[in-house]
Amino acid sequence: MYRPFLPSLAAAFACAALAGARTPQQPPKPGPEIRRLGYFIGTWHEEGDLKASMLGPADHVRSTARIEWMPGNMFYIAHNTQQTSAGVVNDASIAGWDRDKKVYAAYAFDPHGDMRRIEGTLTRAAGSSSPAGGGHAGGASTDDAWAPGDTWRWTTQWGADADLVKLRETVKVTSATAYDFTWEIAAQGKDFQTILQGKATKTPQ
Q1: Phi and psi for 22 in degrees, rounded to 5?
Q2: The whole model's pTM is what?
């Protein structure tokens, strides 16, 4: 007889949780990949000029992101408010490290009911001690520290075949409280085109 997959899967997770409860273990500690996300913790203000594209008309964009660790410091949650001439849009996202795919991953949720997976990579600045290294300007090199010139690249896509659309955001660290960002879009097999450039600053804590 056919048995629904999801309830069976939920039962398996429940059994695993009960087994774990009988043999308590120390919670895992965040590794260097996760700790690097700590650069973004805080309140950030972005501002830039959006070019006309399939996403909408040209406009001046301002946004605020409040980012904090979830309990355990394994993922962060971001609450975003974006303002354009068309009005205000609020959304949220959760980001962390995908240990299976070895990439950063975020899931974004918007008020229209859409959910999207976004994957990210980090390229360490030239002069870092190693690809996994880095360091504060003028300071010692550590695995989880930021360095001016560190570059994050986040990508997502939607649609399929001739309707496939790709979106890419590049974030370049300039200081502990500032970064430059660029949005690029590619549709219907065409090359990426820049549609938004701007700067972000962090509210002092």
Answers
A1: -80, -25
A2: 0.80
